[in-house]
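## tool: complex_structure
## caller: assistant
## args:
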Amino acid sequence: MTLKATINQITVNSLSLPEAAAAIAAAGFGGITVWRDKVEAISVRAAKDIISDHGLAVTGFCIAGLFTRDGRAGVQARIDDSRRSIDIAAELGARSIVTVVGGLLPETKSLDEAREVAFEALARTLEHARAAGVLMALEALHPMYAPDWSVVNTLAMANDWCDRLGPGMSMVVDCYHVWWDPAAPAEVARAGRAGRLSDFHIGDWLLETKSLLLDRGIPGEGVIDLRAWRDGMTAAGFTGWAEVELFSERIWAMPPAEALASIRVACDRLLSEAE
Ligand code: ZN
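## result:
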């Protein structure tokens, strides 16, 4: 089973959505995962038309969540905002919305409290996603992101939350965030058995990474055994898109067509069936 490659729009962050769709299609990719700010900059209707005019699939939508970011007093506003994101994702025809729950609450250092508040908020947002027919794809982020982005940090936690939350939940497996975790392969298999693998993000961890957030590598540049991840995902029954998601100041400084051409070569190498 060969996975097809898609591009998360953040990878070509300097481009508007029309520019990104044109560049991604020209580089030979079949899909685009879009960000809400880029969609809203031109209107949802226009975004939908442009993406389909370029023959691209909408392979995902970013993002819902960050429930804890503004403290307990801000949770309701974050839920409302996530509901709006879900509506846009549904209008665009995205199957899932990437869900990043948020880090510590500003008022306390308690991880337990942050997790409790985030879980409750996610449960309340989920009803809206179910009605809209969009999966909430829970993404575990590397523990170094726990303070400010996500207190869900392992695939085991993501699976546990999905078990508790039930229908309408799915999972993102992002190799960049979870490659270090000895339990990850078993958790990918567990998610596969539960039928909840909806999104597969690929990016590489550079040996001398310069930045926590903004220095991801093109697949093959870093230390992650991405072929093993590819094989683990397909063995678990995943048949979706391999999505290249690169938050990287280095890549953003490259001419986008050049960056996409390098990523295309890397994807062909990684996703081809031969070892
Ligand atoms: Zn990701």
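## assistant note: The chain has one domain: 4-272. The beta strands are 4-8, 31-35, 57-65, 96-100, 135-139, 169-174, 197-202, 241-244. Handing back to user.
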